[in-house]
Design a protein that fits this description.
about 55% helix; 21 helices; Gyrase A, domain 2; flat; Rossmann fold; alpha/beta; Isoleucyl-tRNA Synthetase, Domain 1
Length: about 575
């Protein structure tokens, strides 16, 4: 609904500017606390026409013509700005549209295939909190893009040819695998012991190198060892992802691009550009003229390929299958991702859109799987669930233990997902699990509780025999009612912005604001105790709130509970 209002403002404003004698392709619409939407177009036109923004604004304003039954109620000047306000027609249609579209409310009509790669952690141990920021951002963006109308495929790129996996394979030949532990944790233990041994007893390092070479040339016995090791680690990783409500459509092994010859073909194409040169035995690509001082190494001195070479082949393969490629990468990949994009540009291949995220940390400090210093995602989720259970026991002492545990489970997952995704990806953050599960703070439990409250009101209405299938939306005149309807209408606009800007935090902020608007409405406006004509309309508004809260939570990958 809001996008239609926005389009109407844009159309009317463009016409008014043209009548006033101004040519503009951008009417500069922005969100504003002073209006439902504002325009700063006068500032854009001032340099071109050498007139003051206020004078331009006056000329445009007097030529604005709002048709009958418009979504626009009025336009007002505020200095050099033009402020637009929604009409009663817009408010009424928003309520009716939510009730009609229900779970499809907020869906957009974008088209095209998107391949979004996220997580892609090395299969040498369990996911830790750094990995799950990648997972949560990626999964939430995939959900946003799907709601925006795109055909989205999520991929996990398995780095099966790196030295880390060769160390795991060597470690499994020399150290005990603890079958009593979750499989990815047992693999991590082997990996840590193997690394320690390789540091202390360097004579074993050639054995690892030999394993790597055998795998690159596809020795059958070595291939099986790698597959068994990776499948074992991935089984545990997939369990953790499932617990967090995160799904991948496909798992792509990087070795396939070596086996099918794509990596060799990629290296030949790069050589043909004339940019490749051998230095210290390794083949490198000079990117200095593209603003990247460090050359990209695409082949080691021993003739083996690198992760970056295989990644180039992977992106060429992806580009042939979709209109958009999106990669979710940690801040430590800034250089390599810019090198990758530069080489793809040289080869005239499609480039991925890169979402770089800064790291999330715990008060405990930094983490490293190699050194064995990390808090796994499993441990984090267990701790958060314990904290959530304590909160639920305080809030709902009258309920049975199974109910408390069920609530603690979905509250903890919601708390982790929300607390990670609410911060813009480019900002570093510290995760505090005690605050994340606090029902009083405006995090996931706050939003989930607003949904549960809406469900409870609807349940009570049914039990009391109060019908609201027929109602008059014109009676929704209270300040809190109008604010809530406007907030409901903005859901599709948030989806549109988040999908275009690849910023899932915009949806997290919106969900919190929607829950707050609903709570303000419920606090100040009687619903079940209201007169019948008001009660029916307000119950319809509660149902609208329940629907959009559920849609927002679902798009965030968070459970929308009916009670908690």
């Amino acid at each position: 609904m809001f996008l239609k209002f926005k389009d109407e403002v844009s159309s009317i404003l463009s016409s008014a500017a043209a009548i006033a004698g101004f040519e503009t392709e951008d009417v500069a619409l922005t969100e504003s606390s002073h209006a439902d939407i504002a325009s700063s177009v006068a500032f854009k036109l001032a340099p071109k026409y050498k007139r003051s923004p206020k004078e331009i604004c006056e000329n445009i304003c007097k030529n604005i013509k709002i048709p009958p039954d418009s979504y626009i109620d009025r336009a007002e000047m505020a200095g050099p700005y033009l402020n637009f306000f929604v009409s009663r027609n817009f408010l009424n249609e928003t309520v009716l549209r939510v009730l009609l579209d229900r779970e499809n409310f907020g869906n957009l009509n974008n088209r095209g295939k998107v391949i979004l790669e996220h997580t892609s952690a090395n299969p040498d141990g369990p996911l830790h909190i750094g990995h799950i920021r990648n997972s949560v951002i990626g999964d939430t963006l995939a959900r946003i893009l799907k709601r925006a109308g795109y055909d989205v495929e999520t991929q996990y790129y398995i780095n099966d040819m790196g030295r880390q996996i060769a160390v795991v394979v060597w470690g499994l030949l020399n150290f005990k695998f603890d079958k009593t532990k979750k499989k990815d944790h047992a693999i991590a233990e082997v990996y840590i012991n193997a690394n320690k041994s390789l540091v202390d007893e360097k004579e074993h390092s050639p054995e690892v190198d030999a394993i790597m070479k055998k795998y690159e040339i596809s020795d059958a016995a070595t291939d099986k060892k790698f597959k068994d090791a990776i499948d074992t680690a991935m089984e545990g990783i997939k369990e953790t992802l499932k617990r967090m409500n995160i799904h991948h459509d496909r798992f792509i092994w990087e070795s396939q691009f070596v086996r099918n010859g794509e990596v060799n073909r990629m290296m030949e194409r790069i050589k043909e550009t004339g940019r490749a040169a051998i230095k210290d035995g390794a083949l490198m690509v000079d990117l200095n003229d593209m603003g990247i001082q460090k050359p990209l190494v695409i082949q080691r001195s021993d003739g083996t390929s690198l992760y970056t070479t295989r990644d180039l082949a992977y992106h060429e393969w992806k580009a042939a299958q979709c209109e958009r490629m999106i990669d979710i990468l940690g801040a430590d990949h800034k250089l390599i991702s810019s090198q990758l994009k530069a080489v793809l540009r040289i080869l005239k291949l499609n480039e991925p859109e890169i979402v770089i995220f800064e790291f999330v940390s715990l008060p405990e400090g930094s983490m490293s799987t190699r050194r064995g210093v990390f808090v796994s995602a499993d441990e984090l989720l267990d701790e958060v669930e314990k904290a959530a259970l304590l909160e639920v026991r305080k809030k709902r002492p009258d309920t049975d233990e199974d109910f408390k545990k069920k609530v603690a489970s979905f509250v903890s997952i919601g708390a982790v997902r929300y607390d990670i995704v609410r911060v813009s990806p480019e900002k570093a953050t510290t995760f505090n699990w005690a605050e994340a599960v606090d029902f009083e703070k405006q995090g996931a439990p706050f939003i989930q509780y607003a949904h549960a409250r809406a469900c409870s009101i609807i349940r009570n209405a049914h039990e009391e025999g109060f019908a609201f299938e027929t109602f008059d939306p014109n009676v929704l005149l209270e300040e809190q009612e109008i604010a809530l309807i406007k907030k409901l209408s903005g859901f599709e606009n948030v989806i549109d912005n988040a999908a275009r800007e690849l910023k899932p935090n915009l949806l997290a902020i919106y969900a919190r604001e929607l829950a707050d608007a609903f709570n303000q409405f419920y606090r100040y406006v009687p619903v079940l105790a209201a007169e019948p004509e008001f009660r029916a309309a307000r119950l319809a508004l509660v149902d609208c709130s329940r629907i959009v809260l559920a849609n927002a939570l679902d798009t965030l990958g968070i459970t929308a509970p009916e009670s908690m």
